[in-house]
Amino acid sequence: MADNALKRLAQSRKPGRWLIAAIESVQESHGAGRVDPGWFHPSDFGNDCDAFLAFKFLGAPAVEDISARSRRIFDHGSGRDYYLKMDVKKAGISLIKNEADRKIVIPHLRIRGELDDWVQNPSTGRRYVVDFKTMNTTEFKALEAVKVSHHRQLHPYMYNKETYEGYVLYEDKNDQELKSMPADFVMTLWQAEIVDRIDRVLTGIRHGLVRRNPPPNDSRCPFYNICSIADIKKLLEQSGLEL
Description:
Structural class: alpha+beta
CATH class: Alpha Beta
Strand content: 15-25%
Largest sheet: 4 strands, mixed
Helix content: 40-55%
Number of strands: 8
Strand order of the largest sheet: 5-6-7-8
Number of helices: 8
């Protein structure tokens, strides 16, 4: 990645371009992303493709090419996540006493992850699970309700905390305006899109056949390079996992 930046530097005639090239040389990345064989993570349920879930569960080799600009976008979201957690704590409404309180594990469904926050309304005493999201201005202005994929991701956290009300707190990346969208637990959603889906994916892994949507080799997917050719049963054998 550094060599690419140096080539851009050598070809550039714009003043100060060398500074941007040097910075971007360390922001670009190419790697496998997070690998945690044997577990599903709540954020993964935002992806509609069963093959994606299967590959994540099996710890299959992934390819994630992250541009310098994308890295800055991700870092912005991570930074806002950190400061919002600090602000919620300062406001005295967080139920998180230590970082271990953010961890969730649902062994029988093979789900684990880390929630953003768990809060209590000081007036009513009611508890809520909260997830933080940043988005661009166009999306933010059009937002009138929680996004379906975000609502789905919140369910494992609510289930684990036995807290069946929640919010997704959205922040506009441009002007930092906030919107708090209700995202309560829906039993039919939990059953169909989490519990039944996990069963379908694990059954598919055992039989070597999982649903692919969108079509294989969608370059936005970290598994696009193996999706069409991967032997699911062989990946299961290589993982050493028992189903």
